[in-house]
Amino acid sequence: MAKNLALTAALVVAMLSLAAANTYTTTITTTIDDIDNPGQQQQCQRQLQGRRFQSCQRYLQQGRQGGRDDSEDGELVLPAESRGEQSESLRQCCDELRQVNERCRCEAIKQAVREQQQEGGGYRGQEFEEVYDRARNLPQRCQMRHPRQCQLSGVFL
């Protein structure tokens, strides 16, 4: 009887561990600047008004076209024929972001994500994680000193 109880307990623990490993959790962090500095937000909104960041949208879209996320910085490894296009989209996106005040760059990335979502119908599951990582790490991919990463609070629908 004790053997059966121990075996049952071990089986329950294994099943719970497996269920916990398969649980999908995403944490979105809000930065202090987003809350405490509405003047900065208004300044960014004015600077970004009417801008589309189409190259950034294109770069984010490439993450939805299949590929494997094999790196630590959210960069997808795409088939060879897509790499040149991806590099060009990234370069053009970085150029677009450099034309924006560094304090507004994350807001510009959020805007590109929102517009890309509206055109593409939103994100689901793994696709959400891939696009989120690509967007969050865009400043780092562009080799920008400030910010290095963006916290994308309230962006994904």
Briefly characterize the structure.
The chain has 157 residues and is mainly α. The protein is 62% helix and 3% strand.
Protein architecture, described:
- The structure is a single chain.
- With 157 residues, the protein is mainly α.
- The protein has one domain: Hydrophobic Seed Protein (Orthogonal Bundle).
- 62% of the residues lie in helices and 3% in strands.
- It has eight helices and two strands; from the N terminus they run H-H-H-H-E-E-H-H-H-H.
- The chain has helices at 2-22, 32-36, 38-48, 54-62, 80-98, 105-120, 125-136, 138-141, and strands at 68-69, 76-77.
- Strands 1-2 form a two-stranded antiparallel ribbon.
- Helix 4 (54-62) runs antiparallel to helix 5 (80-98).
- The protein is elongated.
- Residues 22-35 and 68-81 have low confidence and may be disordered.
CATH class: Mainly Alpha
Shape: elongated
Terminal-residue CA separation: 52 Å
Order of helices and strands: HHHHEEHHHH
**CATH architecture name:** Orthogonal Bundle
Quaternary structure type: single chain
The CATH superfamily bears the name Plant lipid-transfer and hydrophobic proteins
What percent strand? under 5%
Helix content: 55-70%
Rg (C-alpha, Å): 20 Å
User: Mean pLDDT across all residues, rounded?
Assistant: 74
DSSP, total strands = 2
What about the largest sheet?
2 strands, antiparallel
Can you give keywords for this protein?
Hydrophobic Seed Protein; two-stranded antiparallel ribbon; 2S albumin; mainly alpha; 157 residues; 2 strands; elongated
